[in-house]
Amino acid sequence: MVGDRTRGALELHDIQRGVLSPRPTPYAATYVLLRIDDPAHGRELMRRASAVVTSAADSATPLGETWVSVAVTYHGLRALGVPQDSLDTFAWEFRQGMAARAKALGDIGENGPGNWEPPLGTPDVHVVLVALAPDSARLETALARARPALDALPGVTAIWRQNCHALPTQTEPFGYRDGIGNPAVEGSGVPGSNRLEPPLKAGEFVLGYPDEMGGTQTLRPEVLGRNGTYLAFRKLHQRVGAFRRYLRDNSTSPQDEELLAAKIMGRWRSGAPLALTPLRDAPDLGADPSRNNTFLYERDDPSGYTTPGGCHIRRGNPRDASVAGSPRLHRMIRRGTAYGPPLPEGVMEDDGVDRGLMFAFIGAHLGRQFEFVQSEWMNSGVFFGGGDERDPIIGSDHGRRDFTIPRRPVRRRLHALPRFVVTRGGEYCFMPGLRALRWLGDLRD
């Protein structure tokens, strides 16, 4: 019976919508972290959540494009009373938690858990609730409707909140258009953003279905794991003034400054990829979702003369590059949401205001997806011949952060890049299916 179901179509009605569906634009969102002090109240929270979480089969909720997603940490599952023999079937990275995995992820020095924003990375984080709406007013309306239900559960305490937003320009704090890439997942009904990339097996992103290697990730009991997935979220503070200064100080003209920004990212700030427009920006291309992500590397630019092998987007998704082994095995669904007010245009000094990106990874394989990309692609350059070079945007603190731009007749080498992004914290979570939320709600001591 289980084998037959794994070969069936995706059960969209049981999968949380935040797993597969790209977010609308513009939107406002908030992350709320909860601590469970009373297991009975925590279970009641799961029961109530199962009734309000939006499924992937729902085109809209009664509030329109307002979604609610719920995820639970390992400590949260223990606080709910999940039996140990079930807990032992979760991915071992999830059981350890993100703070314990800091060294493997490059979260050292200034990025280390000792410098994280409390309570991020602590055993107090049990439940992550994410709410999203078309604007701040409707988001607050939705939260106001939900607040009485939470207030009636004194054994569940809200311990942290981070408001986020997507601007109408769809840009993140450094000024780049964001939210461009989205993989196609078999059976999801959601088209991918790269028409040259075949859809990936559903099991790469949702437990209970075959993945690219033919395996199926399951938990015990099956109802707990099926249609769930893992979520890694990180709060990343961005030093926008430092980034702007670095571009200015290492450029000969405003045009050269924009080209340098494009070489570091792999895209012009409009979103237009270097792979399709290497010499000048093309804002119309950057704003066209049918074209701005449809390209490959190995076929047209194996040496990185157009899109450097060490730039941010090529590291994060090498696409068809054979030197990266099998990039499809490390593909992720990425959700990035800006927080904090923008630094005014032209300002070159950071003003002390907290701004950056709430990053969320979604996938069924924490180890070979999120952790592999962080350790082998972002914090190493071996896979493309870049030695110990690290990602110029989010590379780890360890050693010098150099960046090479291939060009003829002589390459350009940037030395000792300052740190532009600082990890303020994060956690590994599990996003259950809707049936699993009800199962968690029905647990007994």
Automatic annotation (TrEMBL):
Keywords: Iron, Metal-binding, Oxidoreductase, Peroxidase. GO terms for molecular function: peroxidase activity. Coiled coil: none annotated. It holds the Pfam family DyP_N. Its cofactor is heme b. It comes from the Bacteria. InterPro entries: Dimeric_a/b-barrel (IPR011008), DyP_N (IPR049509), Dyp_peroxidase (IPR006314). Residues 40-145 form the DyP dimeric alpha+beta barrel domain. Belongs to the DyP-type peroxidase family. This is Dyp-type peroxidase. It comes from Sphaerisporangium dianthi.
